[in-house]
Specification:
about 300 residues, alpha/beta, Nucleotidyltransferase, domain 5, 2 domains, two-stranded antiparallel ribbon, 7 helices, globular
Length: about 300
């Protein structure tokens, strides 16, 4: 057993790679299981996703706490003044076709789907970029069919503001955006900041405050558990055979708390690799607070000539 043992020195947990039937003791597997649990403290456990990957300098717990406190203060301040607060992110990309969709649905017979999810068999792939209005409990999803880019993200926010936001929040000129640190709305993305300046600030006259959740903390972004999870539950166990099918499931997502979602198909082809010259970045009207400057910033409109 010694070479197959493992353990956690902090929590006192132990585990073993061998199954009860392969331990090598001449007793029944159920007896081995009982002895492992009662005498040695073993039990069947799943892997825990607690180790951050892809981040050479992960934030310290104190830094995370400070960022969560800062986000909470910003949300309270904007809500108190009646200014809009939106949570944004890209939902998991989905293949369109007769593919298995995780989850179960009430049917008399299981629906037959392809035995493999080969992208070559797909009719296409959707890239749903979503907005969750935290104060109105409303969702807005633009379903792209090309690439996940900052251009898609900012186009979606601009469309939401023009068609819904400025009507819901008349005479308001400030907007708070809650976003993850990576992806189309990443905190390091030059294109994301440049397009916010050009399309939302200069184009719509908004002063935009952006707060990013720390790396590894995206599950606290409101859109994840208030919008995307509800969409996933609505189409669980149902293959997304066409783009129209996916749009219909998004639009018909409802909750007891009154969530309503509007979905729009985006036919525009977005290309990756967009670059922003340094002179354009230098011209941004961006200010940052003293703490966690990389995660928090405010972009203001340029004065009109």
């Amino acid at each position: 057993m010694a070479h197959t043992n493992g353990g956690d020195s902090i929590r006192g947990l132990k585990w073993c790679r061998k199954t009860p039937a392969k331990v090598g003791i001449e007793v029944g597997a159920s007896t081995v299981s009982r002895l492992l649990k009662k005498l040695l403290g073993y039990s069947l456990r799943v892997n825990h996703k607690t180790v951050e990957s892809g981040n050479k300098n992960p934030p310290k717990p104190k830094e995370r706490d400070q960022q969560f406190d800062y986000i909470s203060d910003r949300r309270k301040s904007f809500a108190r003044r009646g200014n809009p607060i939106i949570s944004v992110d890209t939902k998991k990309k989905e293949l369109i076709g007769n593919f298995k969709n995780d989850g179960r649905a009430w049917t008399k017979e299981p629906e037959p789907v392809n035995d493999h999810d080969f992208p070559s068999d797909a009719l296409g792939r959707i890239v749903p970029y979503g907005i969750y209005d935290t104060q109105a409990n409303c969702g807005w999803v633009c379903v792209g069919t090309s690439a996940e880019t900052p251009a898609l993200a900012v186009d979606t926010i601009e469309k939401w503001w023009r068609e819904e936001g400025r009507t819901r929040y008349p005479r308001k000129t400030e907007l708070l955006i809650l976003a993850d640190c990576g992806g189309a709305n990443g905190s390091r993305s030059r294109v994301w900041k440049y397009r916010i300046q050009k399309q939302l600030c200069d184009g719509q006259g908004l002063t935009v405050t952006i707060c990013h959740y720390p790396p590894g903390a995206s599950k606290w972004n409101p859109i994840e558990h208030r919008l995307f999870s509800e969409i996933s539950k609505n189409w669980a166990g149902k293959p997304l055979k066409t783009v129209r099918t996916a749009l219909n499931y998004i639009r018909t997502t409802r909750t007891d708390t009154g969530l309503r979602i509007k979905a729009h198909l985006v036919r525009k082809i977005y290309k990756t690799g967009e670059k922003v010259p340094q002179e354009e970045m230098d011209a941004l009207r961006i200010t940052r607070p003293q703490n966690r400057k990389n995660w928090n910033y405010r972009i203001s409109p340029h004065p009109k000539m």
